[in-house]
Amino acid sequence: MKQIGIVGGTGYTGVELIRMLSSHRGIEVSCLTSRSEAGKKVTSLYPWLPYSADLTFQEHSLDALSSCDLVFYATPNKIAMTEAAVLLERGVRVIDLSADFRFSDVALWEATYGGKHGAPDLLQEAVYGLPEKYRHKIAGARIIGNPGCYPTATALALMPLVEASALMESHIIVDGKSGASGAGRTAREDLIVAETSDNFRAYAADGHRHEPEMAHQISQMGQEVSVTFVPHLLPMIRGIEVTVYVSASLGIDDARRVFEARYDSEPFVSLAGIGKHPETRWVRGSNRCVIGLYQQRAGQLIISSVIDNLVRGAAGQAIQNMNLMLGFNEFDAIPVDALSP
Amino acid sequence: MKQIGIVGGTGYTGVELIRMLSSHRGIEVSCLTSRSEAGKKVTSLYPWLPYSADLTFQEHSLDALSSCDLVFYATPNKIAMTEAAVLLERGVRVIDLSADFRFSDVALWEATYGGKHGAPDLLQEAVYGLPEKYRHKIAGARIIGNPGCYPTATALALMPLVEASALMESHIIVDGKSGASGAGRTAREDLIVAETSDNFRAYAADGHRHEPEMAHQISQMGQEVSVTFVPHLLPMIRGIEVTVYVSASLGIDDARRVFEARYDSEPFVSLAGIGKHPETRWVRGSNRCVIGLYQQRAGQLIISSVIDNLVRGAAGQAIQNMNLMLGFNEFDAIPVDALSP
Amino acid sequence: MKQIGIVGGTGYTGVELIRMLSSHRGIEVSCLTSRSEAGKKVTSLYPWLPYSADLTFQEHSLDALSSCDLVFYATPNKIAMTEAAVLLERGVRVIDLSADFRFSDVALWEATYGGKHGAPDLLQEAVYGLPEKYRHKIAGARIIGNPGCYPTATALALMPLVEASALMESHIIVDGKSGASGAGRTAREDLIVAETSDNFRAYAADGHRHEPEMAHQISQMGQEVSVTFVPHLLPMIRGIEVTVYVSASLGIDDARRVFEARYDSEPFVSLAGIGKHPETRWVRGSNRCVIGLYQQRAGQLIISSVIDNLVRGAAGQAIQNMNLMLGFNEFDAIPVDALSP
Amino acid sequence: MKQIGIVGGTGYTGVELIRMLSSHRGIEVSCLTSRSEAGKKVTSLYPWLPYSADLTFQEHSLDALSSCDLVFYATPNKIAMTEAAVLLERGVRVIDLSADFRFSDVALWEATYGGKHGAPDLLQEAVYGLPEKYRHKIAGARIIGNPGCYPTATALALMPLVEASALMESHIIVDGKSGASGAGRTAREDLIVAETSDNFRAYAADGHRHEPEMAHQISQMGQEVSVTFVPHLLPMIRGIEVTVYVSASLGIDDARRVFEARYDSEPFVSLAGIGKHPETRWVRGSNRCVIGLYQQRAGQLIISSVIDNLVRGAAGQAIQNMNLMLGFNEFDAIPVDALSP
User: Fold this and answer.
1) Would you call D202 helix, strand, or coil by DSSP?
2) Whether CATH 3.30.360.10 fits C150-309
3) Which of B51, C285, D75, D319 has the most C-beta neighbours closer than 10 Å?
4) Cβ–Cβ of A236/D279 closer than 8 Å?
5) CATH class of the domain comprising D2-147+312-326
6) Under CATH, which number does the domain B2-146+312-326 receive?
7) What would the pLDDT profile of D246-302 be if each residue is shown by its tens digit?
8) Alpha-carbon gap, residue D111 to D126, rounded angstroms
9) Domain extents in chain D
10) Looking at the DSSP assignment, which residues form a beta bridge with residue C243?
11) What is the ipTM of this complex?
12) Is D56 helix (H, G, I), strand (E, B) or coil?
């Protein structure tokens, strides 16, 4: 029985970690820390998680976390980078769900997130936690930068084309849409039902922090790309869809074959049937990514990719990484079927 | 490995049966029939259920169903009543999710649903599938009438008071609200997003078919009651809340103690914390019922009860009954934690 | 051209006052005060109101307001009661949209809202701004307590029965449901889309401040009543529905005739067709109240009443009162047709 | 008092025509035809439109329509094209809200909509009803092809750039999102709340009929373009947002100046403040289009444009055209302020 720690279990990604890990038979959440909620029972905050009735938030303490085999950071940016080194030294492996360890390039991280990185050496060591690409590296890693939600949906939408060197132009356009849970569990006036329900808008159209992550990670896959990325806020809870526009050397039929071959043995990625469009409800609560391919004119492809931002875009993928690191079956405790309707 | 049949797996309750049963290790869905979709794969209709990739809808056939240990009817009313006798004779047990077997009183059924009942003898034998009340009878039953969604939420809200003979007046008021999935998977103009999203209204305020079921079943518990029941349509997908108004001989503190004692050992029923109000999202995708108790004036109690209409109000409770009938752990394959946010 | 002031124009009721008054040809909003937003243009906060492009929030000042003919208070409770006397002395009439002037009984107000009332003498003078009941008093009033949203929907649902002395028991049950805009424009975590969209729950089931207002105002109409009131939060923006359960001496047909006669000449109140149920979208953006009558058993009536909580339940009714007070046509600038879909 | 006819007043665009025209003081709806609802009162179908209590649907008849000054066709495609010639001969002007008269090129129309066009000669005469571009032609036209919803939002987003010859590449990408009312008032299973609420997906990603209209109309403005257009279905009622990606010779500041100059005197088009993003709720129920401009890399511009699909995208723009044709103030009876929250 492996001992697992969670730092910051009070945001949505933390709640999802708690929920999914409670059904994992090989681990035990032995340390759950929160600065704001220490002393409270999980079920007093989340009455919908009776399986976790025995869990109580405790004060944050690196010493307490040191007895774990692996610790998840479900914290805001710039926390994990100040603590990870200590845990690694003590033999504790780390999966960071924030953006601290998603770039191998310190300068790019600092340009994107501002300030000095707190653990630049670890940036080189950290593995980007996209299992379909880095499964073997992940298994042996001490520290994982768990991918962002939009970058996950986008990377999976492009990986087969990039690996096949099929992009004809380096500039790609990513039009993203996310449910409101992507903004986190925060009391913001612009997120209340009266403002955001039955409403739609772009945000950060001048530049969003996930754009450098996308460009960086896709370029690492084999073709240098630049990305224009505009995210939008959906009047709903869960789900991300990205529509990706590229120039490609493959026609639609060949592209489809390339995607099918690439994802044939991947249980968490699948293609929508021909003529169908992936729907976010198909992946509600699931770790799957579903992808559709379309063509309107020769030389250009359109890819629509959907994930659940809290599962595949955060906690589910993090647990998939944990399974790889700790030698469990990769699929343990990870939901595949979606809750729909 | 028990063999399970599902008749009519194309409505929401059928989809939910398929979804939940796919994670049950003691059974196999060996026969899935549909008049309209025979020949189609489950995943062609429900791409969000990859775990059921091997299942295909077949033509409806009592002979095929006869090889099953147990058959679920997830059909409209008045189908199961014409077929159940044949299956029972052949040693197949039946759980009917429609209203055909919810009343022990033929005259009441005929007054409520119209026409002649097709199997009046079986009405006497059929057990009302509310496990918290009839667990032992269910275990030995050949045929179960699975409770309606509103009656389930209401029966669990009143059972401790009725068993304690604490109702002071026989007339109770039940104000119910249901998500739109309760209306089924049907192309109705009044259910489309443009008509029903961001909208709220009562329906069937002159009398709803679940009212006789409520009154009948609660009366069976020990105190004769009459019920005024007004359902309302919520602009959302899943979830039922009923607010029940009763005159009671118990004060709020005593009432709370009675409920706690009654449900202490029931893993699928729990009380909301004092001062809290049960939320439908606490049971989204879960088989739990959460109940809150309130008092505004002496002699009167208010009970708020929430369930997921498709799980506890239909498929989840049906599988709970199946587990009891086939000797499995009552909780196998039944979700308890909810998907929230 | 009458000069109008608005105090606290930054909440939803303030925004709605601004929006509706901008189309009124007999008045001019000459003073719009806000402690938090002084100096800002209305359109910088509410880009959807270009008709009000000339309006700018200014510092709150009783002197500035003193040049107005009439001032609306769209403020939290306990502000208008400290300022109204000064304005009245200076000849400025006042419509308070908060709860400060809704009770004629000081003790009841203090028991409900806590602390000492700041203008107990004015409580006697203030008129409850329900035009269908107090049209003539309103026309001559110096100060109006504008009704609460739930009490408006409930009072209109009961007024014909109470005036006809048709209630058989003094205890009535009011099950209320409100869109999330009723909670105001406030950054509360429990109101964000991820928590409250696709969710439903009761609130304040132990007692809500609108209950004494309902009981007080209905009793004033002719029959002393006690009220059990449970409000619920709807996953949508605008709209209130109350379902009212009463014992009545009238059958359904007589009740219908009484309602028709009472509201025949009232352009803002109407009955739903027989067999129909009022929908909140029928009054979205409108000042109308639509009422449905139902009966399930002899001696009891069910009334479903819908309004737009921000229009009929706040700003629209306030402007209706203003029109009466200043001698305009009662219907000037008040929307009647609803925006649907 | 001009006499107005509406053919097909039972879809959402027809309902909106009825709603808005009821407040127009210069016209009278003297003929309202419907094949399916003849004989019914408008308020029996649309209880939220009491202002239209005097209107009754009548049998469709060209003779009855011939006494009108102007007739709106709010019908499916391929109806107006078979009747318009007769009405024009009799001196009745026509505004067609379907796609029959949006192209001047017969071959393009036939390639897009299939079959033979029923009035190819009129295609040459018909004016595309985009007032900001063709105001003077519209005023003198006998027949108007009222623009589609997506093309309206897109044309207004691009017109200033195209008129300034600022597009550097002819290929533009339009990522569109529409509320569910865009699919009309039709009983489709995939539009019910349980399927489409809390869900998001692309549709017609292989090619949508609005793409040729966009490309054709934008090209007519001065720069030949090809368009890749992918529409998506939003889980909400009203509102369209398009995000347009172009290569442009103007930097963001110059582009902003060009847009400001172009739309300075246009009351129905405005720019969002710098750093702001247009929201669909800013135009809910309004005829306005609000546009935001953004830049992420040199040489490329992003434009976000929002409209209400039923108002600016259909009925509101049609009435704007009617006002121009009949010599009314262009803004009569057209809502500008939006209903928000």
Assistant:
1) strand
2) yes
3) D319
4) no
5) alpha beta
6) 3.40.50.720
7) 999 999 999 999 999 999 999 999 999 999 999 999 999 999 999 999 999 999 999
8) 19
9) 2-147+312-326, 150-309
10) C175, C304
11) 0.97
12) strand
